[in-house]
């Protein structure tokens, strides 16, 4: 079964985020499966140096899927075959990216406008990687006048796609508004193949609620995992305990401080992995989104995030985290607090 191979809690592909170091740390702290950043089929086929860096998976390749994008069926099929030859056992084709520079090439969510093109891509890739798990990531439609996710899902199923990662927003919505997971339930009910929920999975509670309400086969964490790679372990514990969307009970100040210290240690570990893989200067830049997301909901968080932005080195960033772990920076009683601890 597909779920035996990729599990039920997955790290989504995110540009500038899901490079090898973050995937490595996410898998260490509970993710069952991860995807690379979205990779250009053309760049991969031409051995572009920056593109090849995105495919690094080390010893975690069995727990890593490659996500490819493009608009030409034959090129996507060749790239998928090359990925399989490289050792990837799960190949995903992005058919939902809303970013303008991707859409204008006819890739990503632009494919949703043309059912025939969708079919040709799915058919070509399936034929090229018969022994791999073949998945797609898609949206509900291109805009409000073309919400065709059921049709697209049925085409995918007929072509032998093994599973769908579904983000219930149209391309026109980008990341605005709310993801409508009633559509996820409709897609799940309409198809025999597994459907995974994506979109607005920001907390353990939201993940549990979405899975319960939709019957999805699993959840894909994207922005909710940035700066919080431990969210997978927290989700797993909550699911096992049967905490159906109930907020976690508040702990004592000492317990909160201890938990925060552990999480800061994990982010420092991520910084070290990034420095080793990318070099100190580049790693310093790539860790910032994780720090921004971590530093929400604290007293003085505005000043802390400004310090992160002004920091010139990894050492300065590590010192900011050290100050946080040793200081009196407990969470405020506000809506952001649940997202952190």
Judged by helices, strands and strand pairing, the structural class is alpha/beta
CATH architecture of the largest domain: Alpha-Beta Barrel
Helical proportion? 40-55%
Reading side by side through the largest sheet, how are the strands ordered?
A: 1-2-3-4-5-6-7-8
The SSE order reads: HEHEHHEHEHHEHEHEHEHHHHHH
How does the overall form come out from the CA principal axes? globular
Q: Major beta sheet, specifics?
A: 8 strands, parallel, barrel
Write a concise synopsis of the structure shown:
With about 350 residues, the protein is of the alpha/beta class. It has helices spanning about 1-5, 20-30, 40-45, 50-55, 75-85, 100-105, 115-130, 150-160, 180-190, 205-215, 230-240, 255-280, 280-295, 300-310, 315-325, 335-340; strands at about 10, 35-40, 65-70, 90-95, 135-140, 165-170, 195-200, 220.
If you had to describe this structure to a student in words, what would you say it looks like?
This protein is an alpha/beta fold and 341 residues long. It folds into 2 domains: 2-241, TIM Barrel (Alpha-Beta Barrel), CATH 3.20.20; 253-340, Four Helix Bundle (Hemerythrin (Met), subunit A). It has 16 helices and 8 strands. Helix 5 (73-86) links the parallel strand 3 and strand 4.
